[in-house]
């Protein structure tokens, strides 16, 4: 750019009017004539033109980032992993390390727990049901379902009874065991937790602790499993503890 | 402009872009980005590349419209033109040596690539314009704000003056001083 910074306010405004096309036809005619005659003037006009476009272009550029945030997010997330794939091997390495770490935890701990669970889980045989017992018909009716392996039916029936007697240890215990038999560990745990709150003379207390321990084992919570198995005074729990602490 | 009817929306678009109508620019910007992103991502680029290339292309198209270098010939001409320019810009990047050399692009090489991209753009567009843009970018906030509002947002001096709570003549004078300052800085940055 040639050093012709000595431009007056009036001239600047005239050039601006030329650029944005707001000159009268007579003005424009004069202006064009001047452009043809005076090369310095022409250069000046070109400079101002560039400046105005530059101001606008930069203003626009600074707005574009704002616009960009309004582009729907779905594309961004979709393309992020593509970006990772192409660009960031570090991130991939970190991700891989995490996957391997969690994978090995899963591989070495959970399968072991699962294995122990299947090895040691033996279903409670339930209570003997005889035709003569009529005083607690609903309970034994469900027990029949339980013994026949229809755990869901047993659960549904016991649940009705349990809602009336939420603190009945035997009911809670069998509901827990039935849920375990029904392969629903997370539902079993609350019932078993309630059943171990029973009095010390509760017939199924040791078994309740055993099944609770087994349930936690299956859930992958070895600590709680050990704690409950420790309290349970059964052959199975002792054997399991020795395996777990090995 | 006695255009055919089906060209009206394009001419309207051109007119709105010429007068920097923010809503129209935004709409035009946001609705045409996806295609470019897909193109760049499919061709060894990242989201960052896509954004940079798209913004460069967008400004180029905007300039061409301003200078009447481009006039729409069919219904989707402008959208197609933007796509074409972005595509060509991306192809230039892909053909560039630095891009070929970097097999895996980590952050460092991305930065490297960005610098190179700027140099390349300087060859393609007007050096002077780049300089003005750069100087204006770093101009003091009051001047920058004033010039941007007047020249880009096309607000009248009267409106600007009332917003700043000053006389219109003061605003006019401020604008002139800011222009002088910018001009001096551009000339000095040679």
Structure description:
- The complex is a heterodimer of chains A (246) and B (190).
- Chain A is mainly alpha-helical.
- Chain A folds into three domains: 9-68; 75-108; 122-244, Serine Threonine Protein Phosphatase 5, Tetratricopeptide repeat.
- Chain A has helices spanning 9-19, 25-37, 39-68, 73-87, 89-108, 110-120, 137-147, 151-164, 169-181, 185-195, 205-219, 222-231, 235-244.
- In chain A, helix 11 runs antiparallel to helix 12 (222-231).
- In chain A, 26% of the residues are buried.
- With 190 residues, chain B is mainly alpha-helical.
- Chain B has two domains: 5-125; 135-188, Arc Repressor Mutant, subunit A, CATH 1.10.10.
- Chain B is built from ten helices and no strands.
- The longest helix of chain B is centred in the first third of the chain and has 21 residues, at 22-42.
- Classes of the chains: A mainly alpha (246), B mainly alpha (190).
- The interface between A and B is large, with 38 and 53 residues.
Quick overview:
The complex is a heterodimer of chains A (246) and B (190). Chain A is mostly helical and 246 residues long.
Question: Which features would summarize this protein structure in a list?
Answer:
heterodimer, A: 246 residues, mainly alpha, 3 domains, 13 helices, 0% strand, B: mainly alpha, 2 domains, globular, disordered N terminus
Structural class of chain A: mainly alpha
- Characterize the main sheet of chain A: none
Beta-sheet strand percentage of chain B? under 5%
* Helix vs. strand class of chain B: mainly alpha
């Amino acid at each position: 750019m040639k050093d012709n910074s000595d431009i007056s306010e009036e001239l600047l405004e005239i050039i601006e009017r030329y650029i944005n096309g707001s000159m009268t036809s007579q003005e424009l005619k004069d202006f064009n004539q001047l452009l043809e005659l005076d090369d310095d003037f022409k250069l000046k006009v070109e400079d101002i033109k560039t400046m105005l476009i530059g101001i606008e272009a930069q203003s626009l550029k600074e707005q574009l980032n704002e616009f960009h945030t309004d582009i729907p997010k779905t594309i961004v997330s979709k393309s992020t992993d593509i970006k990772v794939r192409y660009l960031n091997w570090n991130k991939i390495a970190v991700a891989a390390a995490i996957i391997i770490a969690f994978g090995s935890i899963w591989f070495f701990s959970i399968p072991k727990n699962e294995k122990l669970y299947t090895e040691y889980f033996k279903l409670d045989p339930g209570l003997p049901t005889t035709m003569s017992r009529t005083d607690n018909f609903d309970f034994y009716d469900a027990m029949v379902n339980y013994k026949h392996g229809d755990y869901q039916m047993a659960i549904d029936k016991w649940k009705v009874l349990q809602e009336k007697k939420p603190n009945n240890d035997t009911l809670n215990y069998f509901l827990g065991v039935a849920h375990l038999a029904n392969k629903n560990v997370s539902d079993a745990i609350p019932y078993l937790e309630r059943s171990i709150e029973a009095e010390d003379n509760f017939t199924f207390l040791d078994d309740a602790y055993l099944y609770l321990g087994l349930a936690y084992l299956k859930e992958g919570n070895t600590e709680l499993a050990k704690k409950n198995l420790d309290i349970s005074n059964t052959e199975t729990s002792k054997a399991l503890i020795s395996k777990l602490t090995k | 402009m006695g255009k055919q009817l089906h060209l009206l929306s394009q001419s309207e678009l051109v007119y709105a872009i010429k007068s920097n109508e923010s809503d129209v620019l935004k709409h035009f910007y946001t609705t045409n980005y996806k295609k470019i992103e897909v193109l760049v991502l499919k061709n060894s680029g990242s989201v960052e590349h896509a954004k940079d290339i798209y913004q460069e292309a967008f400004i180029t198209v905007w300039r061409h419209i301003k200078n009447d270098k481009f006039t729409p010939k069919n219904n989707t001409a402008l959208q197609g033109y933007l796509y074409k320019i972005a595509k060509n810009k991306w192809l230039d990047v892909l053909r560039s040596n630095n891009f070929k050399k970097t097999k895996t692009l980590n952050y460092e090489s991305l930065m490297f690539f960005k610098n190179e991209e700027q140099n390349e753009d300087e060859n393609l567009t007007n050096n002077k314009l780049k300089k003005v843009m750069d100087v204006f970018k770093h101009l003091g906030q009051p001047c920058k704000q004033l010039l941007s509002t007047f020249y880009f947002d096309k607000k009248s001096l009267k409106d600007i003056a009332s917003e700043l709570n000053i006389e219109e003549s003061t605003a006019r004078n401020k604008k002139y001083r800011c222009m002088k300052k910018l001009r001096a800085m551009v000339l000095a940055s040679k």
